[in-house]
Design brief:
13 helices; disordered N terminus
Amino acid sequence: MSPGLISTVGTVVRIPMRKWPHTHPTQRRTRARPPLMPAGSMRSQTLARMKAGLQSFARYMDPYIVQVLVQSGQRAKLGVAKANATVFFSDIANFTSMAEVLEPSVLAGLLGEYLEEMSDIIMEHNGIVGEFIGDEIMAWWNVPWDLGSRHTVMALTAALDQQQRLGRLRQKWSDAGLPEVRARMGLVSGSVLAGNIGSQSRMKYGLVGDSVNLASRLEQLCKRYDVAVLVDSRTCDEEGVRDTFFLRVVDLVTVKGRQEATELCELVACKGQVRGTPLLDMYSDYCSKFAAIHQLYRSRDFQGALEALDAYQQLWPRDKPAQMLRERCTAYVNSPPGSDWSAVEQLLEK
């Protein structure tokens, strides 16, 4: 890891002056001093206070970041450095609607349990929980520590584990009469700037860059395609990813704010968890057959794509990406596009 990758924090704690009761000046001069505390006891109390302070600090920041900051022994300074990371964003679908119908105390309890469960899974898979923004979680892998070339596999595994854990929580909350809770997630692996961001008086450790922005966009696009987890094709090409997971091509788009085309892929399942079960063939067909349909569409064989969609939608009739692709193919069969047609869909909204 580059020594410039993380800048450290120095904290000043102001201790209020002790206020003695008002007395006559002569009385104050003769006031007995409190007995001196034994040196060993003072050290014990100091260490106990330091430990409590660090534990409190770790509640505001990821404990791994706190560990790095403390061990460095240096003061904070602004600065970032290039790094390769896998960036993660998630939020709760329809959270605003939930907030309108639930009592504040009930909403706070549900949100607190959700954030705790999800962040625990992220940290179990060596991720850094960067911050909570309402119901949104931002996390990342591979900074400030180098986790090796398979850090993207760790991140995607964490995403699937969160979805599985949320399924159990959803049932528990449903039994208690609470609304259905589903989470949308976006992940991108790529270059970022990592370090202390902010001003000289107030800063935080975080990431910025195009990969961060794209991960946030993918999380938001989950709503458009009605899927739980989206990644881009470059993330799919990271070491070990295609061997470990089922990934389905969803669309080819340019997201708002970017000119470069992005191939969107749905993170479906971990191959190892379904090996030896009927789900293995089902997930394989779910991904490979839709990829073949997309190839027909991109080669302008709109009629062939429609015929393939007929069979696909018999198996998955409620699949939103298939419905969207059918609408496009039908429109192009009825009104063929010009020679300058592109399969890249221009998205004008986030």
